[in-house]
């Protein structure tokens, strides 16, 4: 059967000829879809066509063969382009030249490859001269084409690289005493072309191809092939990009930025992606082609300077660019990152995409685009988004970045400044110098706490692993749009670029600045918000958000960053439908979480209270006791501590529910395991060292996680359940009776239940204990008794368990452990292999596994509510603070999610986004 699938889509010449639009990103890639969208809107884009991501997927699957029908479509669409442009690809008399550019659905800066000036041959170069009268541009384009084609298309198979050509360029510049390549004449460039062809022949062992169709075919194959290159794979892995078909290939009519002083090329952002400032920013180069700007070879000029260039055309080009950029931002409802070329005074847009940015910039954009006001100056701005739209532009990571530390102001003032360069990615970074990306990766692999600063002349896509591992990146060349800047900004990583004062010697592994040198291992501190590089380690201080929220500092509350956080949080609360609680074990954490907007405690792990001060000795005494009387005596000592702790927590959470979990971990966690510590314990408790050692031995379990822990402890030692219930209820009664009345809503949670009978047994003890205390105290205290659902059997029998349990809290840490059968403490030994081989898409302990564990959660909720329709359900596993998991929890019908205090704002935002998505 014939394959009628469409693989090639035309764009350009307005709506009637353009076959795609921005909604077709998955198929046309971001670049292709947006080129089509701009063409539809009559924005000047050089016409062309896009080969779909589906074609790329087939190509990879078929071992490097085009899908059936694609070649035919390619020829027909090229013929249409040629006819409309009135030129033929690579024609000897009047050649059409094209660029071949990759573009996946999600932008991957620098990851894929681009070839410019395709169609030039020994013959067509003369046609180009004839048509344009510009001999210099023709030879400049040809030498660039051989370089790019050699590097990008043939490089992966032959080892030919850009560097091989670069050496020859330098030689010829030296020969003719040119400091810049723009100084080379047409004749000299022509000479260079001959040299480049020799370089090509030497490595590729074939002459440079002179058939334009063959050039196009090889270039398309190279773009398809680059989808599976190591660096692209790595970028996708780091950025957790999954589920894409492949890359599209865009074949675009060339426009030339290298046609003299009224031509040029550049990149621009509608707003600042580092600080979030609403002013457009960008860089451009006169008489240059696109790659020159991104590669960081020539230092580009600031976009602001464009109107004051000598030639008047630049004023108009700048005004046109500003107009189009503002139109694009409104159209896409998001700040844009554009590439443009000016050919003899006429502006062409080569690309637009949602701009990469730091978390701070993202929050500022969202807030300013929705309020129509500059948060720093109060200046009026266009209102582009409503609150809901603004929230959907944000991620949990964005908000989290506002909670990052910044340098302590006083400490920074005192620090020794080494140099100041471009502030490419904000935040504070402190680390030890490394010069190679692989060294950064190795350091962090060896010690996850290792802090390194990656110092490079510039970075390339091969360095992304090391850039990711480093605290910050420092480069000596390149501008705000260099590879290092763009990638770091996308991650919210601190980055300083273009520090030209630094002499970086990779061989000797030293940096020289003036008379000083810094070697690998020396400490540096980078202020990515100001571009300042300091010697040594500078103390950091909490962010204004943390200072304002947790410490209530008045000055911090006036900081625009705090105000933006506050607005986003309020908007989140206006929209979300489920509650957000916190996991907190101390009054201090509880108070911090409340300040972050927690609406209760979803999990208070009481065992954390057993380690403080003298308490550990009481619990050890309990463990060593020979009989019930001995255990009760030990527990009595703990009771007063626990009760005091609960009083503190109840006061901090006045009016909000507090779920307290009974003791959960196995007892061996509380006893010492070294001989020395055991001896000390024996001495302290007045028993023999042998007795301690024997008991420790006795407590040994082969699988403690599946052993004597959770509710099983209280089944063996009911006095434990009695003591803890007493502490909770007595504390609740006391604070609700106190002069400054506290409203307490205690929820007693019994952990690790697998059968209804287990729960019944302990619920009875807890309820009897509670009732007696309440009766004695004369307070009308309301409390609940519920359970955690963290064993698959509990989820499966949730209907039975809900006959007794008044609430469920899904302990998805243990539930994940027991559903997969992966030990939560040992998964690190094999998880990297599972991720690498794509056996698991992500770490299931970080992101809830919807298909498996999620099914148990859903089932638990449904079955539980079939018995008890008003059953309150929440989640208290780590997933409660993971945005994707929070969204799942909303869908599953949970009443709340509970997470660590600093993740509360993130969960509020995720819950709002889930509600907005509906
Ligand atoms: C859980 O298992 O998800 C849970 C919250 O309990 P813990 O992590 O304390 O075992
Ligand atoms: Mg658990």
Give an overview of the whole structure:
- This protein is of the alpha/beta class and 918 residues long.
- The protein has four domains: 55-62 and 74-253, Acyl-CoA Binding Protein (Up-down Bundle), CATH 1.20.80; 264-354, ATP-grasp fold, B domain (D-amino Acid Aminotransferase, Chain A, domain 1); 406-541, Phosphohistidine domain (Glucose Oxidase, domain 1); 576-607 and 634-664 and 715-917, Phosphoenolpyruvate-binding domains (TIM Barrel).
- The chain is built from 36 helices and 33 strands.
- Strands 14-24-23-16-17-18-19-15 form an eight-stranded mixed β-sheet. The chain has an eight-stranded parallel beta barrel with strand order 26-27-28-29-30-31-32-33, surrounded by six helices. Strands 1-2-7-5-6 form a five-stranded antiparallel β-sheet, with helices on both faces.
- α18 links the parallel β18 (472-475) and β19 (494-497).
- α22 (587-595) packs parallel to α24.
- The longest helix is centred in the last third of the chain and has 25 residues, at 628-652.
- The radius of gyration is 33 Å and the shape is elongated.
- The two termini are 42 Å apart.
- The site of magnesium ion (MG) has 4 residues, from α32.
- Phosphoenolpyruvate binds next to β27 and α32.
């Amino acid at each position: 059967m014939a394959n009628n699938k469409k693989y090639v889509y035309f764009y350009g010449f307005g709506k009637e000829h353009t076959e795609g639009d921005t909604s077709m990103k998955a198929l046309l890639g971001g670049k292709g879809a947006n080129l089509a969208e701009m063409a539809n809107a009559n924005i000047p884009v050089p016409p062309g066509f896009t080969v779909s991501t589906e074609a790329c997927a087939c190509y990879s699957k078929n071992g490097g063969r085009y899908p059936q029908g694609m070649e035919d479509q390619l020829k027909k669409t090229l013929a249409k382009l040629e006819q409309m442009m009135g030129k033929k690809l690579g024609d000897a008399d009047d050649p059409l030249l094209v660029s071949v550019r990759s573009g996946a659905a999600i932008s991957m800066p620098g990851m894929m490859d681009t070839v410019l000036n395709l169609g030039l041959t020994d013959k067509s170069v003369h046609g180009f001269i004839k048509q344009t009268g510009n001999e210099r541009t023709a030879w400049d384009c040809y030498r660039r084409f051989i370089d790019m084609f050699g590097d990008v298309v043939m490089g992966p198979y032959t080892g030919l690289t850009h560097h091989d050509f670069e050496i020859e360029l330098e030689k010829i510049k030296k020969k003719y005493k040119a400091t810049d390549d723009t100084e080379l004449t047409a004749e000299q460039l022509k000479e260079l072309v001959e040299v480049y062809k020799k370089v090509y022949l030497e490595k590729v062992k074939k002459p440079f191809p002179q058939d334009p169709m063959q050039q196009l075919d090889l270039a398309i194959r190279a773009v398809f092939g680059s989808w599976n290159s190591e660096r692209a794979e790595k970028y996708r892995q780091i950025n957790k990009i999954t589920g894409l078909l492949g890359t599209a290939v865009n074949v675009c009519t060339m426009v030339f930025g290298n046609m003299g002083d009224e031509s040029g090329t550049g990149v621009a952002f509608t707003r600042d992606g580092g600080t979030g400032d609403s002013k457009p920013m960008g860089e451009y180069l006169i008489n240059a082609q696109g790659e020159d700007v991104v590669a960081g070879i020539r230092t580009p000029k600031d976009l602001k300077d464009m109107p004051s260039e000598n030639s008047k055309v630049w004023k108009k080009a700048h005004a046109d660019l500003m107009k189009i950029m503002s139109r694009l931002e409104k159209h896409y409802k998001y700040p844009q990152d554009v590439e443009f070329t000016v050919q003899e005074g006429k502006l062409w847009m080569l690309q637009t995409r949602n701009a990469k940015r730091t978390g701070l910039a993202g929050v500022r954009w969202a807030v300013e685009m929705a309020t129509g006001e500059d948060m720093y100056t109060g200046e009026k701005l266009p209102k582009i988004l409503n609150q809901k739209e603004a929230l959907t532009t944000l991620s949990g990571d964005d908000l989290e970045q506002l909670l990052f530390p910044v340098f302590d102001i006083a400490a920074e003032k005192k620090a020794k400044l080494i140099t100041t360069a471009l502030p490419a990615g904000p935040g504070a970074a402190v680390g030890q110098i490394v010069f190679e990306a692989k060294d950064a990766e190795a350091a962090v692999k060896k010690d996850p706490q290792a802090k390194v600063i990656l110092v490079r002349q510039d970075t390339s896509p091969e360095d992304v692993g090391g850039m990711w591992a480093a605290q910050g990146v420092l480069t000596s060349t390149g501008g705000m749009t260099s590879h290092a800047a763009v990638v770091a900004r996308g991650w919210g990583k601190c980055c300083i670029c273009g520090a030209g004062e630094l002499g970086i010697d990779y061989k000797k592994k030293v940096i020289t600045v003036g008379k000083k040198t810094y070697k690998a291992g020396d400490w540096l501190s980078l202020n990515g918000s100001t571009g300042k590089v300091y010697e040594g380690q500078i103390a950091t201080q909490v962010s204004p958000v943390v200072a304002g929220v947790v410490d209530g500092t008045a000055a911090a509350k006036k900081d625009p960053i705090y105000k933006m956080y506050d607005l986003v949080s309020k908007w989140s609360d206006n929209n979300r439908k489920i509650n957000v609680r916190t996991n907190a074990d101390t009054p201090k954490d509880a108070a911090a979480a409340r300040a972050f907007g927690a609406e209760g405690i979803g999990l208070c792990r009481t065992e954390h209270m057993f380690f403080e001060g003298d308490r550990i000795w009481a619990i050890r005494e309990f463990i060593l006791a020979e009989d019930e009387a001995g255990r009760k005596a030990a527990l009595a000592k703990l009771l007063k501590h626990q009760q005091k702790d609960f009083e503190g927590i109840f006061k901090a959470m006045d009016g909000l529910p507090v779920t307290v979990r009974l003791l959960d971990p196995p007892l061996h966690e509380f006893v010492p395991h070294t001989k020395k510590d055991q001896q000390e314990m024996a001495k302290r408790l007045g028993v023999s060292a042998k007795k301690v050692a024997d008991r420790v031995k006795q407590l040994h379990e082969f699988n403690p996680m599946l052993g004597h822990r959770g509710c099983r402890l209280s089944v063996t030692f009911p006095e434990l359940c009695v003591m803890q219930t007493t502490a909770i209820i007595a504390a609740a009664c006391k604070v609700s009776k106190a002069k400054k009345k506290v409203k307490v809503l205690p929820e007693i949670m019994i952990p690790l239940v697998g059968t209804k009978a287990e729960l019944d047994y302990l619920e009875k003890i807890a309820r009897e204990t509670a009732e007696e205390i309440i009766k004695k105290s004369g307070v009308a205290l309301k409390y609940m008794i519920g359970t955690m659902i963290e064993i698959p059997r509990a989820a499966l029998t949730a209907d039975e368990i809900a006959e007794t349990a008044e609430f469920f809290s899904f302990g998805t840490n243990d539930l994940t452990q027991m559903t997969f059968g992966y030990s939560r403490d040992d998964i690190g030994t094999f998880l990297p292999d599972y991720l690498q081989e794509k056996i698991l898409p992500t770490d299931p302990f970080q992101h809830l596994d919807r298909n498996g564990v999620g099914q148990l959660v859903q089932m638990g909720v449904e079955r539980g509510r079939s018995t008890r329709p008003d059953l309150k359900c929440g989640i208290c596993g780590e997933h409660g603070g993971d945005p994707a998991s929070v969204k799942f929890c909303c869908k599953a019908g949970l009443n709340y999610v509970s997470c660590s205090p600093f993740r509360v704002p993130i969960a509020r935002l995720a819950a709002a986004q889930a509600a907005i998505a509906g």
